[in-house]
Amino acid sequence: MGILIQNTLAVLPEGKKDRVKKANIYIEGDSIIAIDDLSKGSEPKAPEGFKADKVIDGKDKLTIPGLINCHTHSYMAFMRNVADDLSFMDWLFGTIDPIEQKMTDEDAYWGAMLAITEMMKSGTTCFNDMQMNIHQTTRAVKETGMRAVIGRGLVGSGDDEGGRMRINQALEEKEAFADCDRLTFRLAPHAPYTCDSAYMRIVADEADKYDMGIHVHLSESLSEIEQIREKYGCSPIVMADKNGLFDRPCIAAHCVQVDDDDIEIMARKGVSVVTNPASNMKLGNGFAPIQKMLDAGINVCLGTDGAASNNSLNMFHELSLLTLIHKGTGKTPQCISAEEGFKIATINGAKALSMEDKTGSLEAGKKADIAILDLKNPSLQPKNNLLAGLCYSANGSEVDTLIINGQITMEGRKLLTIDEELVYNKVNAIIERMGLDKKEY
Fold it and tell me: What is the pLDDT of residue 138?
């Protein structure tokens, strides 16, 4: 199918910078095949043989690369607003873990469907997920047209039976969904307090054997730091490095409680750090030293974490926090500019997922993963500095149309691959069955 996005404003790369320019964008099949830069009054020139089966009027629209959510737990979406105002360990082991133990495969599927609904409606075209119930998030991704990187959460002690079973499940799921080019897979050891050093080494060896990347939580809370130092005599970052996790392409979520030595190790080993500001603040874990990481050359990307701790999967909200809180904590308004923040939410995420050749920017040859925002919204008026607007004033409701892998999945704010009403009915039935419904009306 040929799609032409005509006479739109678009965020396009220009060297190392992003610029808003007037453009025509040509899509054929799953890819962008050409972009006309019309900003200097040049005449549009369609690629030879191109036929537009669908023309999208870009007037009063802003076209951007789809946002990339580099750390979440999509199945948790039905747990939104059920475990609030708790310390991290009470939240995890006192509330969330018992819910997960009662969760069925169907619960996980509908949680993922709700998560994808929210992410699509707020401009996300790809997410990196750590999940528990194999074949459920993957099924939801395949059915809805979303793009995702999936990791079955791994916990274990040495070569214990449960830990080995989870690794086998992860490998089996990878094989089962090999036919879907929108799905890729990583091994996902949960955290240093749920994976001992011997198990981390086993996971690293398996990742090397099957040429897979790693997705792990590291240095999220002070209690984690204290626990790991007491047990291993080092930081969680050092522990992960010693056991081979950084010898594979590694995405480390959070990294809030890190020191200069930890940052040096991650920079040297090419670790990508996913910052999740809303979740880290809400759980009282603090603020990651993002500017220090960027200065050290670390590839920093952006995530929401799960809806059980955020409680949102809206990357525009996360982008706003990213570009605001570090100005406050660093006491400098130059810390993480709007342009830098937008890159963190797009191309940096693609780099973290080893997909920078496929997505993360609007360029000919890349997959057509695109969000189109309606500029006729008060949050984006006047049309002054639209890159700043994406970070400081947009809220996600401006996203009008979404294209993933060349398929239009939302148009005019209406999802075309998801029955929203069915999703809402299913997730509300889940919380009623589990006794999580706290409504007082």
Answer: 98
C-alpha closest to that of 181 among 148, 214, 204? 148
**pLDDT beyond 80 at 42:** no
For residue 319, the domain's CATH number is 3.20.20.140
Q: What is the pTM of this model?
A: 0.96
Task: Give the integer Cα–Cα distance in Å for 374 and 63.
Answer: 9
- Write the CA distances from 68 to 90, 125, 266, integer angstroms: 29, 6, 21
Does residue 29 fall inside a structural domain?
Answer: yes
Token code pair at residue 131: 């999940």
183-189/67-72 β-pairing:
unpaired
Which residue has tokens 């990347």?
213
**C-alpha triplet 368, 389, 374: angle, nearest 5°:** 55
**Helix, strand, coil % over all residues of the chain, rounded to 5:** 40, 25, 35
Domain limits at 237?
A: 67-352
Q: Convert 178-217 into a string of H (helix), E (strand) and C (coil).
A: CCCCCEEEEEEECCCCCECHHHHHHHHHHHHHCCCEEEEE
24 and 119 inside one domain: no
Helix, strand, or coil (residue 126): strand
Q: Per DSSP, what are the bridge partners of residue 12?
A: 19
Task: Please write the tens of the pLDDT for every residue from 216-243.
Answer: 999 999 999 999 999 999 999 999 999 9
Question: In this predicted structure, what is the pLDDT of residue 380?
Answer: 96
Distance CA 139, CA 423 (A): 14
Report the C-alpha gap between 71 and 256 in whole angstroms.
Answer: 14
Counting the structural domains of the chain, the total is 2
Count of CA atoms in the C-beta half-sphere (13 A) of 31: 10
Query: Where would I find the H helices in 217-259?
Result: 222-232, 236-242
